[in-house]
Amino acid sequence: MSTVLQLRGLSCGYHTHKVVQALDLHLKAGDIGCLLGPSGCGKTTTLRAIAGFEPILTGEIELAGEVISRPGFTLAPEKRRIGMVFQDYALFPHLNVAQNVAFGIRQQQDAERITQDLLELVKLGHLAKRYPHELSGGQQQRVALARALAPSPQLLLLDEPFSNLDGELRRRLSHEVREILKARGTSAILVTHDQEEAFAVSDHVGVFKSGHLEQWDTPFNLYHEPLTPFVASFIGQGYFIRGQLRSPDTVQTELGEIRGNRAYTWAQGSAVDVLLRPDDIVADESSALKARIVGKTFLGAATLYRLQLPTGTQLESIFPSHADHLPGDEVGIRIAADHLVAFPAQGSVAAQISLGESSGVRRVSSD
Length: 367
Ligand code: ADP
Ligand code: MG
Prior knowledge:
Layout: E1 3-14, E2 17-28, E3 32-36, H1 43-51, E4 56-63, E5 66-70, E6 73-74, E7 82-85, H2 97-102, H3 111-121, H4 137-149, E8 155-159, H5 167-184, E9 187-192, H6 195-201, E10 204-209, E11 212-217, H7 219-224, H8 229-234, E12 239-247, E13 250-253, E14 256-259, E15 262-264, E16 271-276, E17 281-283, E18 290-298, E19 302-308, E20 314-320, E21 330-335, E22 341-344, H9 349-356, E23 361-363
This protein binds adenosine-5'-diphosphate and magnesium ion.
């Protein structure tokens, strides 16, 4: 697969204030990437630089093999084959649905056919003559998507496209958008602060923290093999428990020895924090390891329990909901974590050493 977008050592921002620093990522043609992070971390700034609305301070941006931005050079937005979809739809209020979609099509003789096809694709064929104010939010966002796709962009950028929509519609539209982009083979970068949305739509997700990309990876790897404590706590739920590294792949904790499929390079005996997700802890009546239930949230198919160990350490765990436990009950538990995720404990020697490296981890399993 060829690369559609490549960012190399990209820094950008406003005046000389760098908002985004040393960003590297590449997107394969036909893939959907996502920039995920809390508000204010630089996601929109990065998209605006890719679209050509902001000059860049260092590095370069390459689209389909052509450099479109480098310091001192910014190819004009209209000369980049990049489409954009915004949070507030930004439709032309005085144009109807079909006219909005046809707006950016260059080959006018094909405009009608392209518009018709796209409206079918986004399931709005029957509303072609309506005006934006006569549509729901979800319908307006579908028009915006069709309009952005009409000129056949090499890359589509979507900035928080679902955040004006509510829960159920938001979920449905995010799945639809993925199907539409995949059906057309359109490469895209989505920006969101919502992890569920990022995972529903994207092949690769980049977790942003204050203008730095902490990890660019598949949703599976971000969840099971986070490379930094920030990614570990930003993605999914989980608790850290303190442990001691016994061997590269084994940590001694109050839950016993936990052995995983990763090898750590810190010295034997190093203090580490081990990440335990709710699905890493399973109920096991025959286990000698006991925990007390101190909280409970019914989720439907499963129940999320907050557990307390004899030492006072708390964890969360998901059990199938047919076995109903009450707060105060004692339950047997077992650790089922093949993905052993550990970080040097704050302030430990391993933490000091790790500061110099990006991470002390080697993956044992292949990617
Ligand atoms: P996000 O999209 O992740 O919420 P932004 O990229 O919009 O974040 O903003 C990142 C940082 O850049 C913020 O600190 C914000 O205040 C700053 N910023 C955004 N736009 C401008 C601007 N036009 N001029 C100066 N600073 C800006
Ligand atoms: Mg933003």
